Amino acid sequence: LQEGEVYRMTAEAMQERFGLATSLVLRDAGGEAIAFGTRGESDQEIVFRAAATGTYFLDVGGDGRSTGAYL
Known about the structure:
Largest sheet: 3 strands, antiparallel
Distance between the termini: 21 Å
Shape: elongated
Order of helices and strands: EEEEEE
Strand content: over 45%
Structural class: mainly beta
Number of helices: 0
């Protein structure tokens, strides 16, 4: 990511009626969590302004209760 730029990252459960849940965590190059998704249980969103140019990782997951389609 580039310093000063704002990024919007989302994870959406495509089959919300089945109780799918998502998690979204932004991590720095060392793997440290620096931002967490917020919105609801089935959909997550992070809006992040990069403080420094560098490598970041987006960790997308579920709660392990079910599988299904995610976008």
